[in-house]
Amino acid sequence: MAQKVIGIADLAVGKAEDTLVTYALGSCVGVSLWDADKKQGGLVHIMLPSSRENSNPSDNFRKFADTGIGELIQSLGLIGSQKSSLVAKIAGGAKMFATNNSLFNIGERNVEQVRRYLQLMRIPLKAHDTGLDYGRTVFFHVDTGILEVKATNKKNLML
Amino acid sequence: MALNNIEQLNSMHLDVLKEIGNIGSGNAAGALSELIMKPTDITVPDVLLLDFNEAINFLGGADTIAIGMMVQLSEDITGKVIFIIQQAFTSTMTEMLFGTPIDDLTQMDEMATSFITEVGNIMTASYVNAIASLTGLTIDISVPEMTVDMVGAILSVPAVEFAMTGANKVLFIDDSFLIEGSEVRSNLIFVPETKSLEMLFEKLGVTV
Fold first, then answer.
1. SS3 call for B143
2. DSSP of A74-96, one letter per residue?
3. H/E element holding B145?
4. CA distance B57 to B51
5. Within 13 Å and on the Cβ side, how many CA atoms surround A110?
6. Which residue in B has a C-alpha nearest to residue A46's C-alpha?
7. d(C-alpha A41, C-alpha A87), whole Å
8. Taking the mean position of all CA atoms in its chain, how far away is CA A62?
9. Are B189 and B84 in contact (CB under 8 A)?
10. What is the pLDDT of residues B3-42, one digit of tens each?
């Protein structure tokens, strides 16, 4: 059983024996995609809602909801998972400081755009734990497709 | 040339920010020393420009619990300052003030919370005043807001702001204070809006 750690604005795919982890999602969103038949899947840690708001062509496109999820779908395609056989689970998108007004709640916008993009790709969203005001660590268990969500002083959620 | 994001800062810019950090830390040490009634020394602060994931490791790893405080800047300089207080800093400070250290940040009582808020307030004001006095600009700061959470989640707040400008790094000041032989560290993340950063350098006579 291998544990793969995914940093901010990064992604990884794995097979049944793997657990994909991304730590401390604040306003960022962790998106897991799972193929139940092949028992494989992937996880991406996105930071921002849309690559269309980006001004830097040499940027890391894994940080945006659309291009990050897009690349994850492609990576799963390379190991034989069709888009039509994937299901999604998501966590994160918190608002860490209540009065952080300059970005009118980036966490909420991230979640909105993740949902929109999944819909566009016709990938069903099976479960979510998003919003509120605290950080979340997620463990994506690729054998079962369970997305385990841990937060400080809270019971673990099994999505 | 216009500054697009912090990745375009050169060593001269960083030196200027380091000097601001230096004066700010001096102010902060004085204020801290008054608050806890103990002499407080500082070492020369470091100004670091680190990738998001490097910054998280530098702060002890993504799931390390820390205190995050945020103040918004307004008037001539707009943006925010996020102050990250680590467990060790809180333990040392609370032990000095109350006689018993707080070893679990998630279990702070009201008194400890208000004390730490005050520390954060003093620290951020010290740096902001350093910028204001060096540049002659007017800067207002909001009432600080506090959260206790995983350091990675706290860092996502400034990281997202830098990411929106196309940068994949964060800019922060790493400080060490010496209080009665114990070294405590604090980290201040300065998130100016790009236009404000340009103005700051202009006022200091540094080419952007």
1. coil
2. HHHHHTT--GGGEEEEEEE---S
3. strand B145-150
4. 10
5. 32
6. B160
7. 9
8. 11
9. yes
10. 778 888 888 888 888 888 888 888 888 988 888 888 888 8
Amino acid symbol at A131: G
Identify whether A28 is a catalytic site residue.
yes
Domain with residue A7: its CATH number is 3.30.1330.200
The per-residue pLDDT for range A69-127, each reduced to its tens digit, is: 999 999 999 999 999 999 999 999 999 987 766 556 899 999 999 999 999 999 999 99
**Yes or no, beta carbons of A25 and B156 under 8 Å apart:** yes
Distances A107 to B93, B156, B163 between C-alpha atoms, Å: 33, 10, 14
* DSSP secondary structure of A35-48: ETTTTEEEEEEE-B
Q: Tokens 């909420």 appear where?
A: A108
Q: Which of A11, A21, A28, A44 is catalytic?
A: A28
**Separation between Cα atoms, residue B18 and residue B20, nearest integer Å:** 5
Return the bridge partners of B139, or none: B75
* Whole-complex ipTM: 0.87
Domain that holds residue A62: 2-158
Q: Does B157 reach chain A within 8 Å, measured CB to CB? A: yes
DSSP B92: H
Cα separation, A75 vs B54, in Å, equals 25
Q: Write down all domains in chain B, each with its CATH number in brackets.
A: 9-203 (3.40.1550.10)
